[in-house]
Amino acid sequence: MNHIDVTRHEQCLHIRLTGEFASNAARDIDAALAAVSGPPTLVLDLSGTTFLGGVGTSYLVKLQTRLSTLGGGLFLNNVSESVASELAMRDLTGFFRIAEEWEEDMGEEMLPLLAAR
Fold it and tell me: DSSP assignment of the chain, as one string?
């Protein structure tokens, strides 16, 4: 079971995913992104995510590609140990931009500066 919380600041969405990644999380994230006109920036907080699995990993790879194609971006934030282990096991750590030190009040312009790629 999972839960997502969405906060929007213009083109930037901050989504916190809690629990295991499942197909309903993908639908909820896609619905939140559909409400943004123009190229969206998505900050996905994974601090409370306990498991990505193949479904979650595949979705994140496709999401990264899709947002880049639209001129937006995906930033992973507060990646939990279990998710970090899954990404490392699949050799995907370097594929994603990870902004560990980012807080919502810093603004989206700080994301590229904080992202370790």
Answer: -EEEEEEEETTEEEEEEEEE--HHHHHHHHHHHHT--SS-EEEEEEEEEEE-HHHHHHHHHHHHHHHHHTT-EEEEES--HHHHHHHHHTT-GGGSEE-TT--GGG-GGGHHHH-B-
Give dist(CA 35, CA 40) in Å, integer.
10
Query: Which fold would CATH assign to domain 2-114?
Result: Transcription Regulator spoIIAA (3.30.750)
For the entire predicted model, the pTM comes to 0.84
pLDDT, tens only, 50-108: 999 999 999 999 999 999 999 988 999 899 999 999 999 999 988 998 887 656 655 55
Residue 10 buriedness (CB in 10 A; 0-12 / 13-18 / 19+): exposed
Residue type, 66: R
